[in-house]
Amino acid sequence: MSESDLLAAVLGEAPAFLDSLDTRPVRSDSDVDAVVAALGGPLPARGSDPLAVVRQLVAGAGPGLVAMPSPRFFGWVIGGTLPAALAADWLTSVWDQNAGLLASSPAAAGAERVAGAWLLDLLGLPAGAAVGFVTGGKMANFTCLAAARHTVLARAGWDVEKEGLAGAPPVTVVVGAERHESVDMAVRYLGLGPARSVVVPVDDQGRLRLQDLSPALPLAGPTILCLQAGNVHSGAFDPLGEAVDLAHAGGAWVHVDGAFGLWAAASPSLHHLVDGLERADSWATDAHKTLNVPYDNGLAIVADANALAAAMGMHAAYLIQDERVDPFAVVPELSRRARGFTVWAALRSLGRSGVAELVDRLCMRAREFASALAGLDGVQVHNDVVYTQVCVSFGSDARTRDVAARLLADGTAWMTPSTWHGRAVLRISVSNWRTTSADVDRTVEAIRRVLASG
Predict the structure, then answer these.
(1) What is the pLDDT of residue 454?
(2) What is the DSSP pairing of strand 198-200 with strand 172-176?
(3) Is the pTM of this model over 0.90?
(4) Read out DSSP for 6-22?
(5) Bigger pLDDT: 13 or 195?
(6) Chain-centre distance of CA 240, in angstroms?
(7) Rounded distance, CA 127 to CA 125, Å?
(8) Which of 48, 282, 297, 317 is deepest in the core (most CB within 10 A)?
């Protein structure tokens, strides 16, 4: 069988899955052990026909698929995939480009350069900022904070890239009490010790409290302040502009973790949530969340391009390099997937107004959830719904956990249990471009049904 015939066969499988999203249960029909049994056994001594391999993969993995592209998947902050981005992702695999060097793929590098410039313009960030295409939000935070570590130590006369951290001036990281765990992981990877971070109290929505920030900033030495655009439970935003100005007055670097919330900057109606965003020093986000491109598409944005290149860059004799910055010099990886094609396709297909409309629509669906659920007996909405997140409970913690488990088993929608402010909640994250008001209604009806059943 030719490669063309094989790809045509795969193309035949894809529409069946996508067309099933409206009616299939969102949960999977089997667990990991069943998938292992279907796909496993000893490694065959001889190879198999590629088409037979694909058919076995579809048959074995299919029952274990969670319908994450479903318009009723609200479990975590992960979007679906826009049609243009999906098509570009297929082409990315077919083209098989190593996106590390300018010389290895002018196509990949060019797409990233254009998509990066469009993103800076769309989000109102400095035009000269560097944009690194990384795997996801955690590595975006890591990459940005590596540039931050480089800069604050360089200001103190220390070359961390050459000398490491032994003997270096201590770096203080200041964080909000409800920062995302990926920030702590990035601090850990960078050797800065999350247990040493200065933690600033937050309000009832998870927003950093300005009155507690000033005393928490030890501005006598190298300092990095991490802010949040989009709390993972409430969707709330730190007071970015005021916090940036306060930190900059003492010489601190300011980083914004905006994995899904940074995209509020693209919406005129939501831009007030991120006032002052552009005055920070670095920003992390995930294109596979609110922008709805495939996975493996985090974005690390640093205002000082030289700082990012100093923290991430390398030179090797066997590489073809010139005076221009190679794509690998602003990310942790050397060889990597050409991520820019899908981001370019998403932005080109939506345009400025389309991105704004997408973000506004997701927020509208979240407000519809909050309104409908608040009207049900025994349901409490715990957050001010300012963005795409809704947290609810159903009485006691035990009942809330029981309802959450029965909703997952029901399969109409997927929403995840969590704990926020010491109590059990059901967290609803609206991130998929496919989600309509009808999907909200179907999900609320499923919740009503589960509640009525005990």
Answers:
(1) 78
(2) parallel
(3) yes
(4) HHHHHHHHHHHHHHTTT
(5) 195
(6) 19
(7) 6
(8) 282
Which residues of 246-297 form beta strands (DSSP E)? 253-257, 282-286
**Three state DSSP letters for 295-361:** CCCEEEEECCHHHHHHHHCCCCCCCCCCCCCCHHHHCCCCCCCCCHHHHHHHHHHHHHHHHHHHHHH
d(CA 249, CA 217): 11
pLDDT tens-place string over residues 147-179: 999 999 999 999 999 999 999 999 999 999 999
- Has residue 79 got a pLDDT over 70? yes
Any bridge partners for residue 225, and if so which? Answer: 174, 254
Cα distance between residue 146 and residue 134, in whole Å: 13
| Token pair recorded at residue 5 | 């015939």
| 317 token code pair | 């004799």
The tens digit of pLDDT for each residue in 353-405 reads 999 999 999 999 999 999 999 999 999 999 999 999 999 999 999 999 999 99
* The two three-digit tokens of residue 286, written as one number: 């995930």
CB neighbour list of residue 374: distance below 8 Å, 6 or more residues apart: 380, 381
Instruction: Report residue 163 as tokens.
Output: 């000398």
Q: Which two tokens stand for residue 114?
A: 């254009």
In terms of DSSP H, where are the helices of 250-312?
Answer: 305-312
Strand, coil or helix: 154? helix
Q: Which helix (H) or strand (E) holds 404?
A: helix 397-410
d(CA 191, CA 169): 13
Look at residues 237, 229, 261, 227 and name the one whose alpha carbon lies nearest to residue 359.
Answer: 261
Q: Report the distance separating Cα 424 and Cα 371, nearest Å.
A: 20
Query: What gap in Å lies between CA 293 and CA 110, rounded to an integer?
Result: 18
Give the helix/strand (H/E) hosting 172: strand 172-176
162 burial via Cβ count (<10 Å: 0-12, 13-18, 19+): exposed
Q: Which run of H or of E encompasses 175?
A: strand 172-176
CB crowding 250-278: b at 16 or more within 10 Å, else e: eebbbbbbbbbbbbbbbbeebeebbebbb
- Strands (E) in 66-171, as ranges, are 130-134
**Residue 442, helix vs strand vs coil:** helix
